[in-house]
Amino acid sequence: MSATPTAAPLGTSLVLDAEALYRELLRGVRSLMGPNTQLAGITSGGAWLVERLHHDLGLSAPVSVLSSALHRDDFAQRGMASSAQTQLHFDVNGADVLVLDDVLYTGRTVRAVINELYDYGRPGCVRLAVLVDRGGRQLPYAADFAAARVALPASQVLALARAQDGSFHFAVKQA
Fold first, then answer.
1. pTM score > 0.90 for this model?
2. Quick count: other Cβ atoms within 10 Å of Cβ 33?
């Protein structure tokens, strides 16, 4: 696991260099990849990461995406977005799956996508890599690799955004 502190508090705001964190994530994913590792990104930030990782790692397989929509414990409040559909382009049974996401917080999304993954078969191994682990876990999930660990109040939401040129940046919003 990595604990690279690339977050710098400035007064009351937090500045995160998403591009620097992506480079650290790329290094971490390379170290976790085996010859049969399959990447799957969680919609939407994790899917963006997997798209770019596929390019930077020279992977030719189609990008796989996991949606948490059908297994959320807050489905009644959130509903289902039309863009949130699982698309797996590999046989899950016995697979070494590396799940990617932008921010790990309570663990509820990870729980939901693991349930979704098991709807498609029984993987041999499931690991998790994230750009940012912000703590605050409500469920016992941990990332095998986190490019950074930061602490934010529960009243703030950390969200990855992608510009038209494909570059990443973070937005910190009030919940």
1. no
2. 16
